[in-house]
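Hi support team,

I submitted a single chain yesterday and got back a structure, but I'm not sure I'm reading the token output correctly. Could someone confirm the output below corresponds to the sequence I sent? I've pasted both exactly as they appear in my results page.

Thanks,
R.
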Amino acid sequence: MGMRTGAPQTALEAVGWRRLPFTGWPWRSLGYLLVTLPAALVAAAGLAVPAVPWLVLAAGGLPVGTIVALVLLGAALVAALGPLIALPVAVPGRWRLRMVDARPTGSGPRKRPPAGGAAAWLRTRYTDPAAWRETSYAILLATLVPVLCVAALLAMLLAGVLIASPFTVAAGLGPIALLVGQVSTVSQAVPYVIVGIALLPLLPYLVTLVAGADAAVARALLLGGPEERLLAELTEVSASRARLADAFEAERRRIERDLHDGAQQKLVSLTMQLGLARLDMPPGSPGAQTVAAAHEQAKQLMAELRELIHGIQPQILTDLGLPAALGELADQASLPVTVEAELGGRLPQQVENTAYFVAAEALTNVAKHSGATSATVVARQNGKVLTVEISDNGHGGADPERGTGLTGLADRVAVAGGRMLLSSPHGGPTVVRVEVPCPQKRPAPG
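Hi R., thanks for writing in. Yes, this is the structure output for that exact sequence:
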């Protein structure tokens, strides 16, 4: 026999609890119903204007064509204004859920509005499925929900009146009408008292059931199902990851500028001063040898710093774009590399950075591990997707599980919203294909 092992999380779950009348759920549910009625008035007031054509139908005696026109006009007005009317209903609705639903609520799955002012916000609002679910709940809240709430509250009031009927008659306030008859004496009120007492154990279940049913519908429409919430969370994680990637790229460019404009310039000045001091020292003296050693170390350090800056953010990539940067990679490679780049213009900065560093890391792997004598880099833009293929004629057998290099490349591409494909059979060739979405281009710097 199955038994409930834990406390219920929602009012609807609590209805099946035998201990329900002795818990706080009925009182929480009663509070929920009392708070719901003002919310229903807000929803009804908001829907009053678009529902005017439907209210006209109550007059009756209208031609069929007029009835059809009024029904369509009312539906059009509700559709046009519903997502806006639902806003002051949805937010308090999610807050009210906490009274009878102990599960996390959050803000519900919804699209994040892009930058662009009121027009962009309205476009996002009217294309968001969550907004239309909120509109559906607003319509229910203005029509069916208050009827159920009032019915449950009237049932409680009725039980109280039945139980109090003998005292009312005894106080000389009778006769009073109860259900199907009138009561003018205490003896006549006794059967009604029995009915009222019999109703008392049922009232906690009735109130909790009505509140739990409304909360379940509200949760489904205002928060969506588990799949929708998971999809919304994944979408937000992807957006957050993209924002972190943009912040990382901006920080990397800042570091590159600081090193280039600060440390590198100071090191160049120091190298020149050491060179001048070296010329002023007597040849062959101990001081001249020390200054000469310091001069050589400064020049070596300057070369290493230049390579470090280039690795952080190649200047040619910033100034001339991806084709020129790939050409420079080919020139610096330790094996012959052929570059084919068919791009119609400058790409978004994150796309260019991703493609460049993937190509750079892939060519490094080719030189270190493949045993290849040549490699090819092909970059093409097909619609809104940039495709970069790095291939070599080496012995193949590349396996992401044997090292973190290929995994790191895949992670870098995934952050940009793309994917990486690898083909590396034993005996070769090895082909690394990267596909990165690039929805827009940017003009080349003038």
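A quick pointer for reading it: Residues 226-280 form the longest helix (55 residues). Let us know if anything else looks off.

Best,
Support desk
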